[in-house]
Amino acid sequence: MAEHRTAKLEVQGLHKSFVLHAVDGRRIDALNGIDLSVHTGEHVALVGSSGAGKSTLLKSVYRTYLPDSGTVTLRLATGATVELTGLEDRELVALRVREIGYVSQFLRSEPRRSVRDTVARAGRRRGLDHEASLDAAAEVLRRLGIGENLWRSYPSLLSGGEKQRVNLASGIICPPGLLLLDEPVSALDPANRESVLALIAELTSWGTTVLAVFHDLNAIERLADRVVLLSAGTVAESGRPTDVLRTLTTFEGPIA
Amino acid sequence: MTPALRVDGLGKIYGPGTAADVAGTGPGFNRVVSPTSGGIVAAWDVSFEVGPGEALGVIGESGSGKSTVMRCICGDEDPTTGSIRLASVDGGDTDLRTLSAARRRALRVDRLAVVYQDPAEGLDLRLSAGGNVAERLTAAGWRNFGRIRERASELMLRTDVPLDRMDDPVREFSGGMRQRVQLAKALSNNPPVVLLDEPTTGLDASVAASVLDLIRDLLEELGVAAVVVSHDFSVIEMLTQRVVVMHHGRIVEAGLTDQLLEDPQHPYSQRLVGAARG
User: Fold this and answer.
1) Closest Cα of chain B to A20: distance in Å?
2) What long-range pairs does B85-94 form, CB within 8 A, spacing at least 24?
3) Residue of chain B whose alpha carbon sits nearest to that of A24
């Protein structure tokens, strides 16, 4: 019997191109009509060769990139649905804080704000009071293996792997309903990678919906419920991780 | 939700000319001087809203009209056309331009604070740091000297101005410290809207950084609505959630700050971001 689940995120006919006005108005088509539905509590991994549109799709959902056409519909915690591509900027700012976490592989931390405060601030923006935000930050930093000796440092002084975990900690403190992950473990050593993957798995089991791009196949096999293969800005295939990954290694050569 | 500040169709022409003389100016014509009247169309058709707890950035190169817009909002300049509304004035029903000059000035005391690039514009340099804050509080109706002094010390502490310098005249202060005093004064009686015009420009890098940190923390703590004019993208990125891009007196693009910096749409925005980012 088919499991009845609601779509947390529904992407329909999404197109995104970049027009480079400084280069004679050259146009680069990055997404060419993406249709994708992610269920509540599902972890969907995006795969495909470099330039296939994986990061562009994540950023177009978050609206760091402004899509040309198509719709992105998000089901909120309240059960109502909102279409993001046409949402007023002011409303989108508020909605991001409450409902969507975006973690990129690059740490864009604010300068001169301590590690713990960087993470705690993300919690405060999600509605925690000052005290609770510091506690929650401490907990998530510990879980990700960032020791107390680093909490008062500025993230800019940390190693790449440490930065990446601070970044992730900010993204998942008070877990949002939808988490967009763009290679969140690319700079991590095996032990730390392990604790991050375990935490992501735990979030999914608690109902957080994840749309992710991972470099490594093991992470995908372990975490993803479904794998979506992108090719030239369209969905080429979608299915169980083992099936899609097999097609991939057979026909496309190594991904990533 | 009523925005804390709402600007509609704001325009300012310096020199001769009316709305009819705006044609032929703007980004499409690459000029701000009206071909018919010779007047300078410094800003035209500028509209935006800012909500409580939100910061809107205004970016654009020198002469794009950023500061003109700020000066029109705070009343330093009288706009040629358009309306400016504050939620704190008649719930946003009244266009501030219809108010008397006296009433308009009074708003600067507790509804709409301005932090200028040059602290000399926002402070009386002959007065002490505490005196500058006291001046604002007295204007706002504070009468108890002890309470005023207490509030001033509180603000000095918060803005890292050494308490033992509170009674020194501000003209003896360094640029960074003057800017801190200006912030203390502007925020002394919790105005719901704050306009910051290049608040860190002209300061040494390290001093600018500490002033910027202070602004960031204050905006976060106080939940005010802020408009931040800066040509420095790191300032905009750190303080604001939304941005408008101005060019030749017009808003050519509006969007989320991260979107504008990563995926600017307008040719001018692309050039501006490209120049800053390399």
Assistant:
1) 8
2) B85/B5, B85/B6, B85/B7, B85/B8, B86/B4, B86/B5, B86/B6, B86/B111, B86/B112, B86/B192, B86/B193, B87/B2, B87/B3, B87/B4, B87/B5, B87/B52, B87/B192, B88/B4, B88/B192, B88/B193, B91/B2, B92/B2, B92/B3, B92/B6
3) B267
ipTM score for this prediction: 0.89
Partner-chain residue, chosen from B54, B238, B274, that has the shortest CB–CB distance to A22: B274
Q: What residue ranges do the domains of chain A occupy? A: 7-252
Residue the block writes with tokens 């310096």: B14
Task: Choose among A58, A71, A75, A66: nearest CA to A7.
Answer: A75
For residue B209, the chain A residues in CB contact (below 8 A) are 111-112
CATH superfamily placement of domain A7-252: P-loop containing nucleotide triphosphate hydrolases (3.40.50.300)
Q: pTM for this structure?
A: 0.91
pLDDT tens, residue by residue, B98-143: 999 999 999 998 899 999 999 999 999 999 999 999 999 999 999 9
